[in-house]
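Exercise 7.
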Amino acid sequence: MTAPLIEGRGLILSFGNERVLDNVTLSINAGEIMTLIGPNGAGKSTLVKTLLGLQSADQGEVIRKPGLRIGYVPQKLAIDQVLPMTVKRFLTLTRSASRGDCQKVLEQVGASHVIDSQMSSLSGGETQRVMLARTLLLRPDLLVLDEPTQGVDVTGQAELYRLIDDIRAELNCAVLMISHDLHLVMAKTDQVVCFNRHVCCSGIPETVRQHPEYRSLFGDRAADAIGIYTHAHDHEHDLAGHVVDGGDGHDHHHGHVHGPGCAHGHHHHEEEIDEKDRIWRPQ
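Solution. The predicted structure, written as tokens, is:
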């Protein structure tokens, strides 16, 4: 059996008198997409930082595969709007790469045309794709994404999750995500970990949403509202999430998760947003 890329065993961490990690054991395997879900203040970011070695635990141990290459995409990118910085320059801030290499990774994320654009002029979806491209220069074994669809509209979120799945398949890397986009992320995840300072439950999405601890944390209504399906359509979306003609005559499949009563077309954005807001309101 292949050893995990990262494994945390019995992790305990307190800040003052407040215990943030309570005997957490977790492992991430090669090629796996794992998503951490939980309410605000659950310690998800702290757990990830501890696994990556950015935060030390009071007790327990973290075992990482020797030579593990990690690509990290933060939740937000703060760039001074008056600072001139092209996408090409941003990609090479901390490592050298040729224009050809930059063009290649931008093509992988569907953003090759922005290579000479100013970072400050990019949309939310374009910025997230550029940050993904930057990590791909590392050829990571593990891709860590903290709220990867922050600031992206609902249609753009679905496209980004599809892209992350494609990258996982191409690089055979593992993906560790922190996400609140339960209605979308469930369709693109191998393992869900419901976390609230300890591992409440974990497993495949369908199993987790039926688990008593998940229902206790998020409510029966939230669990029952999630339905996973895939639908086909004969068009694509641009980086801003607008519908464009696919031009190839083939169906394109996207994983979507909707609440009950949502249509299968592209007029369900309001319902999805409302569904998400209801799901993540603490019970």
